[in-house]
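User: Show me a protein chain along with its predicted structure.
Assistant: Here is one chain, sequence first, then structure tokens.
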Amino acid sequence: MIIVVAQQYVENLSESVKFGLRAKMKRGEMVGFHGALGYDYDKETKSIAVNIAEAEVVKYIFKRYIEGAVNPLQLLYYWAFYTAHSALIISLRLSVLWGGLTVS
């Protein structure tokens, strides 16, 4: 009997979450955006904008990937190593975005 109640609770919770996410989408709000390298999120205006400094890192990664580099994440490490200012920013972003992964 407890299993049935627990299953019903999970299904109700799932529907409530889906309803809330659909409502946010209808209002034009960001859903599930935790930040992306090359973009900044403005909580007041609820919009994203290009971060020029980080966009250069993204362009570099894509350029090197197209040139045949195998691992885009490894390219990010190299870029961070050679640009000390970007290293701190990228390290902080990675630790937030990817659960504690940091550039060392």
